Amino acid sequence: MNLILTLSFVATIWPSLVLGHEPSPLQDFCVADFNSIVKVNGFPCLNPKQVTVDHFLFKGLNIVGNTSNYLGVSVNRPTVNEIPGLNTLGISTVRVDYALSGVVPPHRHPRASEILVVLEGTILVGFVTSNPENKLISKVLEKGDVFVFPFGLFHFQQNVGSGNAVTMAFLDSQNPGVVIAANAVFGSRPTINDDVLVRAFEVDSSVIDKLKAPYH
After folding, report:
1. What is the pLDDT of residues 157-176, one digit of tens each?
2. What is the chain's Cα-based Rg?
3. Locate the Cupin type-1 domain: which residues (predicted)?
4. Which of 200, 91, 193 is nearest to 209 (CA)?
């Protein structure tokens, strides 16, 4: 009787267990073969006999980025495209350099959660929960602090210290992607119909035109 109950319980929760993690790797690695004509969700595997140490290597994450731009930030984001050995491993990293008041604008990663570490400076971070709450979860971080951005939620960073700042983040996708809120809404090609945006933001069409102008 106990065995039957146990099997029934396992059968009930098994779908949840299956969806709770990625399948175990079937081989040591699957270096991305960018030249393959095979199309899959990711990249097919390069012949192991063609794999070299450089497929697992990226240099330059120690280099200070150029922050002389409107946002005052530099993003160095090596993904599977820069490190072919990341293919199928479900991880990547990113370094961000911030000038004074530098901002990483509200954005989301459609394929990843993120954990951020402050290496230098003072950083304001935050994310917004989904509808209907739309609650802002925000904190000022100091050197050595760690903060998590949950999967798919819009989040941001800003240097609020008295000097330059640096953060390093790690994401659970080989190619997390990035959707910047303003770029997506006002910079799409072709553009989103003005009437849709007027109703969405409850502003005059002239305001929408001004918001679109920098992107077109």
Report:
1. 999 999 999 999 999 999 99
2. 22
3. 71-209
4. 193
Annotated ligand binding at 142? The verdict is no
Cβ atoms 177, 107 nearer than 8 A: no
Q: Are 168 and 117 in contact (CB under 8 A)?
A: yes
pLDDT tens by residue, 6-37: 555 545 544 444 444 456 778 899 999 999 99
Report how far residue 73's alpha carbon sits from residue 39's, in angstroms, rounded to the nearest whole number: 35
Residue 155 is assigned to a ligand binding site: yes
b/e 20-52 (16+ beta carbons within 10 angstroms → b): eeeeeeeeebbbbbeeeeeeeeebbbbeeeebe
Residues of the chain with CATH 2.60.120.10: 25-177
Is 114 known as a binding-site position? yes
Question: According to the 3-state scheme, what is the secondary structure of 134-154?
Answer: CCEEEEEECCCCEEEECCCCC
Amino acid at position 37, single letter: I
**Residue 167 CB contacts under 8 Å (≥ 6 apart), including other chains:** 95, 96, 98, 116, 117, 118, 119, 123, 157
Any binding-site annotation on 107? Answer: yes
Instruction: Give the burial string for 134-154 (b: 16+ CB within 10 Å, else e).
Output: eeeeeeebeeeeebebeeeeb
